[in-house]
């Protein structure tokens, strides 16, 4: 493929990515019906469980799904098609969601702070400039005090996809814009090249650092995986990130992976006790409907607003775009407008 024009390479990548998404949906039902077939046979061996099967079997369609391989195949193909088409259509349908979060002893100017939160754009792969533009346009439609980009902006080196990411550089003209790294920043080339590009574009990159924003201390940590990046003295450090925040001032922390809360609790409990709100992404809320049960079971935090140790809160976005297959659950490519107010 080295000598094939880039346009054809991108086309072939998109086709294979779509196939991977279809396979993800299909394999869930294949495995599900495999389990149904296995347990149904076992249940026929006992009178009590057989009675349950017979009760379910009184509903004609359920009876077919239990015992007819043809019906199972039809169900798998039809539902896979419906899910895949709907998720492909909704992949870059950007939804603006509003949420008010009450914080203890809030010190924001006028007792209110409005933040736009985006995350997990994954520019590169099957995410193009057009999709990034849509996210930026949604943010620009909303008056905010600050814009937070919570990691996983890219899935390729600067040299390959710089043009796809450039729409993001419009954001600092709208409101002060801040960025922290996610795990995908470290997968392609040198993350410092992206950091330099954002800095040149007036985006404040918080590398275990903090800054004041309208009466609150906004801190940002490097991604939980950054210690493996090969970059010297580049890790996740809540203590350094919040060091210097004025006393009795509300603290908001940007941390891409919500699992970082567990490490904060173990390594920096004193600092975590002073944090009022952590804003994260990373989970995509599963991205696929069929993946939700596994992701929900495996991850300590999944999606939405949580209470965390010492009285703070954790807000997790499902991300603004998608990773890998160009598919996402309906209404889950999101831009959050958070209204922070005092209790």
Automatic annotation (TrEMBL):
Positions of transmembrane segments: 12-36, 48-67, 73-94, 288-306
UniProt keyword list: Membrane, Transmembrane, Transmembrane helix
CDD domains registered for this protein in UniProt: MPP_YkuE_C
Keyword ATP-binding listed: no
Residue ranges annotated for the Calcineurin-like phosphoesterase domain, each copy included: 114-285
The keyword Repeat is annotated on this UniProt entry: no
Gene Ontology MF term list: hydrolase activity
Protein name: Metallophos domain-containing protein
Top-rank taxon, per record: Eukaryota
């Amino acid at each position: 493929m080295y000598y094939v024009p880039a346009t054809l390479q991108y086309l072939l990548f998109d086709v294979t990515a779509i196939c991977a998404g279809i396979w993800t949906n299909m394999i869930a039902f294949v495995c599900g019906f495999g389990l149904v077939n296995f347990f149904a046979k076992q249940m026929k061996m006992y009178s009590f469980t057989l009675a349950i099967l017979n009760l379910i079997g009184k509903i004609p369609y359920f009876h077919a799904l239990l015992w007819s391989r043809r019906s199972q195949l039809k169900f798998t193909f039809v539902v896979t098609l419906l899910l895949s088409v709907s998720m492909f259509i909704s992949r870059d349908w950007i939804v603006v969601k509003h949420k008010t979060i009450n914080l203890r002893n809030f010190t924001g100017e006028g007792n209110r702070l409005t933040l736009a939160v985006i995350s997990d754009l994954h520019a590169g792969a099957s995410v193009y400039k057009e999709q990034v533009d849509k996210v930026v346009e949604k943010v620009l439609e909303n008056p905010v005090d600050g814009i937070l980009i919570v990691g996983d902006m890219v899935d390729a080196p600067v040299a390959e996809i710089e043009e796809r990411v450039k729409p993001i550089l419009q954001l600092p003209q709208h409101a002060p814009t801040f960025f922290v790294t996610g795990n995908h920043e470290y997968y392609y080339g040198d993350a410092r090249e992206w950091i330099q590009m954002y800095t040149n574009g007036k985006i404040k990159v918080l590398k275990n650092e903090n800054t004041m924003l309208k009466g609150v201390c906004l801190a940002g940590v490097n991604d939980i995986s950054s210690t493996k990046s090969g970059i010297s003295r580049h890790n996740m450090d809540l203590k350094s990130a919040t060091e210097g925040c004025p006393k009795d001032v509300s603290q908001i922390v940007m941390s891409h992976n919500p699992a970082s809360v567990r490490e904060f609790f173990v390594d920096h409990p004193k600092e975590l006790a002073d944090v009022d709100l952590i804003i994260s992404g990373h989970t995509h809320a599963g991205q696929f409907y069929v993946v939700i049960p596994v992701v929900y079971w495996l991850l300590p935090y999944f999606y939405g607003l949580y209470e965390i140790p010492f009285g703070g809160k954790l807000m997790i976005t499902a991300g603004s775009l998608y990773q890998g297959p160009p598919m996402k659950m309906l209404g889950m490519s999101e831009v959050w407008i958070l209204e922070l107010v005092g209790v």
